[in-house]
Amino acid sequence: MQKDYYNILGVNKGASKEEIKKAFYKLAHKHHPDKKGGNEATFKQVNEAYQVLSDDAKRSKYDQYGAGFENMGQQQGGYGRGFGGFEGFDFSGFQNGGAEFDFGNLNDIFSDFFGGGMGGFRTTRTPRGRNMQTEINISMVDSILGVEKKMILGGHKEITIKIPAGIQNGQTLKMTGYGEEIKNGKPGDLLIRVNVKFTHKISPKARELLEQLKKEGI
Questions:
Q1: What is the pLDDT of residues 106-128, one digit of tens each?
Q2: Are the beta carbons of 63 and 198 closer than 8 angstroms?
Q3: Which of 39, 46, 61, 197 could pair covalently with 69 via S-S, beta carbons 3.0-4.6 A apart?
Q4: Secondary structure letter of residue 36 according to DSSP
Q5: pLDDT per residue over 51-106, tens digit each?
């Protein structure tokens, strides 16, 4: 049975983006797994539903094709169809600490398998820098609502990290191209572990925000 994202968030199919956002905040706050009485499975479903319905393009495809819309392109003409033995192969399981596995250039991969590129000739593999890892701490409120944080890399380069609403403690974000830089090659990626800090002491600003959300029924 396909997932009904509207039903998961408790909104009707014609709900506005603001109604969807309010429903998500309310359910995310209720089911957050690091909160007493929270439910990780329900929280993941709520977050998945919000990621689709809050995006106009994804929502339109979901309304047309249902929850399996993201796989339709692969079924109709994905990479696997042109190579015997790769049909139906699920690449989604290749993950590294919560970060998406980077396959790099597909031409290089098929070159390793068949002794030539996808076009039948060998290509030169581009050297790539190492991935770098770091951590960042955020509050429970920021984990629910989402936040942007500044970070300094290498003592001089400032970057902005966009942390999505509904992120869980211990999840890893990947920033492509922000890892080790090497000469005549591609930079690696930056993997950022997100630590959600929970405390009984809530700042006046956070308390004010939570009270406002409560008044709005979120």
A1: 444 444 444 444 444 455 678 88
A2: no
A3: 61
A4: T
A5: 999 999 999 988 888 877 766 655 444 444 443 443 444 444 444 444 444 444 44
- The runs of H, that is alpha helices, within 32-150 are 40-53, 56-65, 69-77, 106-114, 140-145
DSSP state of 54: T
Report the 10 Å Cβ neighbour count for 2.
9
**Residue the block writes with tokens 């809530």:** 202
Please report, for the chain, the start and end positions of each structural domain, with discontinuous segments joined by +: 3-112, 130-195
Q: What percent of the chain has pLDDT over 70?
A: 67
In 3-state terms, what secondary structure has residue 163? strand
The three-class DSSP label of residue 47 is helix
pLDDT above 50 for 12: yes
Amino acid at 180: E
pLDDT tens digit string along 152-178? 887 778 889 999 988 888 899 999 988
- Provide CB contacts within 8 A for 118, sequence distance 6+: 106, 107, 110
Q: Where are the beta strands (DSSP E) in 15-154?
A: 95-96, 99-100, 132-139, 147-153
Cα dihedral angle (55, 56, 57, 60), rounded to 10 degrees? 120
Q: What is the DSSP string of 178-190?
A: -S---TTSB---E
Q: Which CATH superfamily is domain 3-112 in?
A: DnaJ domain (1.10.287.110)
Tell whether domain 130-195 is in CATH 2.60.260.20.
Answer: yes
Residue identified by tokens 């290089």 is: 108
